[in-house]
Amino acid sequence: MIGLLRRVAVTLALPVLLIAAWWWLSEGSTNTFLPPLRRILAAFADVWTLERIAVDVLPSLVRLAVGYLLAAVVAIGAGVLIGRSRLVRGIAEPGLEFARAIPPPVLVPILMLFAGIGDTMKIIVIAFGAFWPILLNTVEGVRAVDPVLLDTARSYRFGGFGRLRNLILPAAGPQIVTGLRQALSIAIILMVISEMFAAREGLGFAIIQFQRTFAIPEMWSGTILLGLLGFALAKLFQIIERRVLFWYFGMRAAARDT
Questions:
Q1: I want to staple 130 with a disulfide (CB 3.0 to 4.6 A). Which of 71, 101, 205, 216 is the partner?
Q2: How far apart are CA 2 and CA 6, in angstroms?
């Protein structure tokens, strides 16, 4: 119990100090663009009601989830194929390097011509940006699988699917999860950016509308909400990561104890 309380105290210490400093430094502010924190928090309570969350936040989270999961499925599948085959890697590498160099926000005006301003365009932008860190980490993780273990699996007559399921994916798992963690941050950023272009609803749309109408405390409240969502999603990812890679974290803990 004491250990849990200590971990909670360590986790909350810096955020509490930063909030206290922000409150104290901004309390006497007369700057229109940097209002006192108490005004921002009051605007937060007024703006982000359950109705507003249902209209602007939930659609954003749905688009984020669909784009992120689409990127994960395609990138992991492509990464395994590229990582396992030198021929496929040689063929795909030039095109992948070209596509990777394109910043995802640049695609927004282009996709608007073909997909309109609806959810499809926003999901594609999120998926495109999240795709690359997952793909690259999957390729590197698959290529790093010990060849001796692969030969041993073949000698025990493991088929292609058996090697993939029981050896390749578990061995590359930590690297794949690293790519998924990096992609989550990118996906959140692209979710907001895609909603700032010709959108009708969404968290990014709400923030840009507050800015355009000079509702500055409300704009800051949307930014704080975005930070809270990012924090919550990161913690949720951490919980899932611990469950999926329980064996990996167990090995690391055992190594530290020896």
A1: 71
A2: 6
